[in-house]
Design goal:
heterodimer; A: 109 residues; mainly beta; 6-stranded mixed beta sheet; 5-stranded antiparallel beta sheet; B: 118 residues; 4-stranded antiparallel beta sheet; globular
Chain lengths: 109, 118
């Protein structure tokens, strides 16, 4: 099956810093989503981005489907950004999602 | 829009009992719902895909007689953990796809159910 690799696995930032999270996938995909899992376990939709670039406030994402990767940018990080960020893809020809292992982010005040 | 609820949020039960978890799409129709299991500090593991009006499709290694899934309507899917044992203790999360939205394949997640089996 498709492999989804996220990096870095762990990230510690000072409030106000910028960061880039990466999601590599081993095959073509139909869909790609980025999620933020907060400390209470809720997964929050950040971006639905099978290709192209999107921005939402301090967050933006870019997916280059032909090169099989997606990037999530967090600017001016805040303590509320802490949590785990997951990338999930549907492999080409399937609509069954596969999750990466996530990036655990801690933002210190 | 695109809100998914899950009930209960937390349940503690004795070994050998069965537990039912409900997943509802509140403001859209979900022809497909997914059930995941998550262990501490781990990623989400897909257990099964639930399609309205048909039998669920289970992932390899998931016991379908242990984890009963029913998707009787376009807004409700249930997961029943039968004869629960301590090793079934975990965080169970459902998601739903909103086929009527512009993003046909975007998943929306419920808040999860933490199951503890004593």
């Amino acid at each position: 099956g498709i492999q989804v690799e996220q990096s870095p696995p762990d990230l510690i930032l000072q409030e106000g810093a910028n960061s880039t999270l990466r999601c590599n996938f081993s095959d073509s995909v139909n869909n790609l989503q980025w999620f933020h899992q907060n400390p209470w376990g809720q997964l929050i939709n950040l971006f639905y981005i099978p290709s192209g670039t999107k921005q939402n406030g301090r967050l933006s994402a870019t997916t280059v489907a032909t090169e099989r990767y997606s990037l999530l940018y967090i600017s001016s990080s805040q303590t509320t950004d802490s949590g785990v960020y997951f990338c999930a893809v549907d492999p080409g020809g399937s609509y069954i999602p596969t999750f990466g292992r996530g990036t655990s982010l801690i933002v210190h005040p | 829009g695109a809100v998914v609820s899950q009930h209960p949020s937390r349940v503690i039960c004795k070994s050998g009992t069965s537990v039912k978890i409900e997943c509802r799409s509140l403001d859209f129709q979900a022809t497909t719902m997914f059930w995941y299991r998550q262990f501490p500090k781990k990623s989400l593991m897909l257990m099964a895909t639930s399609n309205e009006g048909s039998k669920a499709t289970y992932e390899q290694g998931v016991e379908k007689d242990k984890f009963l899934i029913n998707h009787a309507s376009l807004t409700l899917s249930t997961l029943t953990v039968t004869s629960a044992h301590p090793e079934d203790s975990s965080f169970y999360i459902c998601s739903a796809r909103d086929w009527a939205s512009g993003s046909l394949n975007e998943q929306f997640f419920g808040p999860g159910t933490r199951l503890t089996v004593l």
